[in-house]
Amino acid sequence: MKFSILVNEGPFTHQCSDSAYQFTKAALEKGHEIFRVFFYYDGVNNANKLAEPPTDDRNLTANWSALAEEHGVDLVVCVAAALRRGLKDDILASGFRISGLGQLIEAGIQADRLVTFGD
Amino acid sequence: MSDNNEAPPPIPPDDDEDEFGVIKKFCYVNRKAPYGTVYALESLEMVLIAAAFDQDVSVVFMDDGVYQIKSDQAPEAAGMKNFSKTYRALEGYDVEKLYVSKESMEERGLTTDDFLVDVEVLDAAALSALLAEQEVVITS
Fold it and tell me: A100, A109, B107, B132: which has the fewest Cβ within 10 Å?
């Protein structure tokens, strides 16, 4: 099946980002296709490369980047939501790109299922 | 689209295309109060962009989300931007399928007279049927 993923909350204060990451990883391992992961609302904070969680904890930003590296997953951060939260290209982690909300609509159209992770 | 101090309109698509050649049923389910968090405002931006891409858009207001379309909002005193007029502009984007949860509305002592847009009131069973026929459901 072809999935698109919508991530609506930032890391650490919500389970949402972890669940979205685990779902995406599991879907890929099962042979499903991930058309795109779209980050909206505070979800854009997943893409901040300045984040440095303690080394004995998971680093979601690095995990997403690794997923993009290994599987070519398209990680798209909403530009309007990003600007509102001070996230710009120069602090964007590898594998992420900033683009418009039209990319979310396309993700909804192209996928068999759009799965939202939020509160 | 709105009054003074308006936010920029939704970001236009990356390419010159304003459609993807496919129309799907997009349903936005708005469940949160209009102020205090950014959910309502950013959800509205998603609604507008789906409409800009000519999708078949419905919007459901339920739980505290019914307050998003309450008339006579005055958040300015709390330092918030009043974006409620944008809901009235939805018609101009051909977003005319606006639904309100009957139970959510009644629990809050509201009637359709309290809303700044025309809505169709659906009970839980009808709402369930509406959601079942959608292809993309985005809740926030």
Answer: B132
